[in-house]
């Protein structure tokens, strides 16, 4: 159940977007201001971080993948044109997990659409009352009420720290800065992910078209990431539909997925 403003906001956003790591909106009930989403059986990231309802703990491998998936979704939202979408309430409760523990971001009730030309305009201010969970909310947003993509990045940073430390979010950024002994051990444990004798390629490193590791990952209008050369070839051959869903693409622009590219390069260097 939501209020009317949050209801209409979420219908507007999720009704027009498709991405593998954004929750799929299946239906609406205007009379009750209710939304019907796809069923995600593994609860929220919050449930797994704090073992609610006897949920199993996440492996390091799953944690690394979830970080990459959230990064991919934010890159998609923040790169949309002509209006960038800022979620504004990113927290573990709003990150749901499917049957394979792949994540999907939900709850766009307080998000904002920001025209690209205003993002770097010093005189522009898009203000709102902060309504999100303050434990994950950008302090600058709390102070000014001005929502920008950097607000989501701060919240994402707190989520990363929670995934790495297993600690509650309250004061976590300060605690990690003070307790410098945390960092080396966490980094070492994370780096051990590559030491198994057989290292299967993470599936999200593979181009859906070529089924090969991507060197120039690009996000298309369908929300999927492809090898740039392969997707450009697909579009230049006259296709205007998604190679994955066969639905018509809303535009033919490609957006570099820098976060995924860096993750792939790092993985290749350690192989």
Structural account:
The protein is an alpha+beta fold and 271 residues long. It has two domains: 191 residues, Transferase(Phosphotransferase), domain 1, CATH 1.10.510; 68 residues, Herpes Virus-1 (2-Layer Sandwich). The protein is 36% helix and 11% strand. It has nine helices and nine strands. The protein has a three-stranded antiparallel β-sheet with strand order 8-7-9. Strands 1-2 form a two-stranded antiparallel sheet. α3 runs antiparallel to α5. The protein is globular, with a radius of gyration of 19 Å. It starts with a helix and ends with a helix. About 6% of the residues have low confidence. Functions as an E3 ubiquitin ligase. This is RING-type E3 ubiquitin transferase.
Report the average pLDDT across residues: 80
Strand order of the largest sheet: 8-7-9
Structure classification: alpha+beta
Query: What's the number of structural domains?
Result: 2
Shape: globular
Q: What is the terminal-to-terminal distance?
A: 48 Å
Tally of DSSP helical segments: 9
The CATH class label of the largest domain is Mainly Alpha
In CATH terms, the superfamily of the largest domain is Transferase(Phosphotransferase) domain 1
Order of helices and strands: HEEHHEEEEHHHHEEHEH
Strand tally is 9
Largest sheet: 3 strands, antiparallel
Fraction of helical residues: 25-40%
Return residue spans where pLDDT drops below 50 for at least 5 consecutive residues: 116-130
Second rung of CATH, namely the architecture of the largest domain? Orthogonal Bundle
Provide the CATH topology of the largest domain. Transferase(Phosphotransferase), domain 1
Question: What is the gyration radius calculated from CA atoms?
Answer: 19 Å
Residues in β-strands, percent: 5-15%
């Amino acid at each position: 159940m939501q209020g009317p403003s949050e209801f209409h906001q979420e219908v507007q956003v999720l009704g027009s977007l498709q991405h593998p790591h954004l929750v799929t909106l299946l239906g609406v009930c205007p009379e009750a201001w209710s939304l019907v989403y796809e069923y995600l059986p593994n609860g929220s990231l919050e449930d797994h971080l704090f073992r609610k309802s006897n949920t199993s703990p996440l492996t390091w491998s799953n944690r690394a993948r979830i970080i990459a998936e959230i990064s991919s979704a934010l890159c998609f939202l923040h790169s949309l044109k002509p209006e960038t979408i800022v979620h504004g309430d990113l927290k573990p409760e709003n990150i749901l997990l499917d049957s394979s523990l792949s994540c999907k971001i939900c709850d766009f009730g307080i998000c904002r659409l920001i025209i690209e030309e205003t993002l770097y305009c010093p005189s522009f201010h898009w203000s709102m009352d902060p309504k999100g969970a303050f434990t994950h909310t950008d302090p600058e947003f709390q102070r000014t009420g001005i929502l920008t993509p950097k607000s989501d990045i701060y919240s994402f940073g707190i989520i990363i720290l929670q995934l790495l430390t297993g600690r509650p979010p309250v004061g976590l950024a300060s605690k990690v800065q003070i307790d410098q002994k945390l960092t080396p051990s966490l980094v070492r444990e994370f780096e051990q992910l590559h030491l198994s004798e057989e290292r299967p390629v993470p599936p999200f490193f593979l181009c859906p078209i070529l089924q090969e590791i991507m060197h120039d990952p690009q996000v298309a209008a369908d929300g999927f990431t492809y090898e740039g050369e392969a997707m450009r070839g697909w579009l230049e051959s006259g296709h205007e539909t998604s190679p994955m869903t066969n639905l018509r693409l809303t535009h033919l622009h490609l957006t570099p997925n820098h976060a995924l590219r860096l993750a792939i390069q790092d993985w290749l260097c350690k192989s």
